[in-house]
Amino acid sequence: MDGDTLFTIGALTRRTGLTVKTIRFHSDTGIVPPTDRSPAGHRLYAIGALARLDLVRTLRDLGLDLAVILQVLDREVSVPEVAGAHADALEVQIRTLRLRRAVL
């Protein structure tokens, strides 16, 4: 497969396991913009969209919100920076939950 190959939303769905609705949402919000349109007006995506969608899914699975994910994608912050801040926030939540449990 060469770098000029373009994928439809259906092809991205099959390759990523994401729903069409999710890919359209990411497309509409600019997270994964289409590279081109087919003659029928369908969105077409370059191969880089696969990696970008995988990264977005991984970051969402880690509990990050879309605003932070956009910062990572725009290279405003790095993944290690975000991971460190997220780990710190989780530690605070764990301590809070332990205190609540102790009260019970």
Could you explain how this protein is built, in words?
There is one protein chain. This protein is mainly α. The protein has a single domain, classed as Multidrug-efflux Transporter Regulator, Chain: A, Domain 2 (Orthogonal Bundle). 62% of the residues lie in helices and 4% in strands. The protein has five helices and two strands; from the N terminus they run ααββααα. It has a two-stranded antiparallel ribbon. A hairpin with a 5-residue loop joins strand 1 (36-37) and strand 2 (43-44).
How large a portion of the residues is in β-strands, by DSSP E? Answer: under 5%
Characterize the biggest β-sheet. Answer: 2 strands, antiparallel
The total count of strands amounts to 2
> How many domain modules?
1
Q: Gap between N and C termini, in Å? A: 59 Å
Cα radius of gyration in angstroms: 18 Å
CATH class: Mainly Alpha
Quaternary structure state of the chains depicted:
single chain
Helix content: 55-70%
The total count of helices amounts to: 5
CATH architecture: Orthogonal Bundle
The parts where pLDDT drops under 50 for at least 5 residues are: none
Arithmetic mean pLDDT: 89
For the largest sheet, list the strands in their spatial order.
Answer: 1-2
Class inferred from helices and paired strands: mainly alpha
Pattern of helices and strands: HHEEHHH
Shape descriptor: elongated
Q: Which fold name fills CATH's third level, the topology? A: Multidrug-efflux Transporter Regulator, Chain: A, Domain 2
InterPro entries: DNA-bd_dom_put_sf, MerR-type_HTH_dom, MerR_fam
Organism: Streptomyces gardneri
Protein name: HTH merR-type domain-containing protein
Keywords: DNA-binding
